[in-house]
Write a structure and sequence with these properties.
The complex is a heterodimer. Chain A has strands at residues 4-7, 10-13, 19-25, 32-38, 44-51, 57-58, 67-73, 76-81, 90-97, 106-107, 111-115. By secondary structure, chain A is mostly beta strands. Chain A is globular, with a radius of gyration of 13 Å. The relative contact order of chain A is 0.33. In chain A, the strands form two sheets. In chain A, strands 2, 4, 5, 6, 9, 10 and 11 form a seven-stranded mixed β-sheet that branches. A four-stranded antiparallel β-sheet of chain A has the order 1-3-8-7, with no helix packed on it. By secondary structure, chain B is mainly beta. Chain B has strands spanning 3-7, 10-14, 19-26, 32-38, 45-50, 56-59, 62-66, 70-75, 84-91, 100-102, 106-111. In chain B, the strands form two sheets. In chain B, strands 2, 4, 5, 9, 10 and 11 form a six-stranded mixed β-sheet that branches. A five-stranded antiparallel β-sheet of chain B has the order 1-3-8-7-6, with no helix packed on it. The termini of chain B are far apart. The chains are: A mainly beta, B mainly beta. At the A-B interface, strand 5 and strand 10 of A face strand 4 and strand 5 of B.
Chain lengths: 116, 112
């Protein structure tokens, strides 16, 4: 149980392109979804928190116009990196949480984004 | 500000050599402490949640314990497939969005 699917797993694109990443909870309803960024040999940095049907809450320093988050249903959230540049290259990971706030987050397998 | 410090940064063990990983934390009102395992190029895999001091959880060769200041992940008779990065995270109170604050992780290598 508690499976989170993230797609695509790997994307390479040219600078200036917008890239959409999907995160789906396959066997549970996710009241809250989270988006993280992870640099090599570093831990996870929270980018934003989203609740179904509400606007995402972004962490300090994260540009909301650059990283668009949509959480349209209890099983799907998307992250769109708009006009991506090489400095946006990173490993992006989503997580989903069901029920009350002290339940564990379950993570997808991440998306490796490379901007040329 | 919530802080999580994991030690050691890296640990090499021989197969069967038991050891412990440490997670020290500072948080204003712990709602939960979480242990995850992360393999290279993958997302973290949930292992345990601990909610109060004195609590213990076990799963196969792993046992997690919690005090008011730290948590330990004990690995008994590890196997090469236990090699991974182990992440500890604490959950802030509800007013802080219940976000997780992660430590930097301990990279465990178990040699056959």
């Amino acid at each position: 149980g508690a499976v989170v699917s993230q797609h695509p797993s790997w994307v390479i694109c040219k600078s200036g392109t917008s890239v959409k990443i999907e995160c789906r909870s396959l066997d549970f309803q996710a009241t809250t979804m989270f988006w993280y960024r992870q640099f090599p040999k570093q831990s996870l940095m929270l980018m934003a928190t989203s609740n179904e049907g509400s606007k995402a809450t972004y962490e300090q320093g994260v540009e909301k116009d650059k990283f668009l988050i949509n959480h349209a249903s209890l099983t799907l959230s998307t992250l769109t990196v708009t006009s991506a540049h090489p400095e946006d290259s990173s490993f992006y990971i989503c997580s989903a949480r069901a029920g009350s706030s002290n339940q564990p987050q379950h993570f997808g397998d991440g998306t490796r984004l490379s901007i040329l | 500000e919530d802080q999580v410090t994991q030690s050691p940064e890296a640990l090499r063990l021989q197969e069967g050599e038991s050891s412990s990983l440490n997670c020290s934390y500072t948080v204003s009102g712990l709602r939960g402490l979480f242990w995850y395992r992360q393999d290279p190029g993958k997302g973290p895999e949930f292992l345990f949640t601990l909610y109060s001091a004195g609590e213990e959880k076990e799963k196969e060769r792993l046992k997690a314990t919690l005090t008011k200041k730290e948590s330990f992940l004990h690995i008994t008779a590890p196997k090469p497939e236990d090699s991974a990065t182990y992440l500890c995270a604490v959950q802030a109170p509800e007013t802080s969005g219940s976000r997780l604050t992660f430590g930097e992780g301990t990279q465990l290598t178990v040699n056959p």
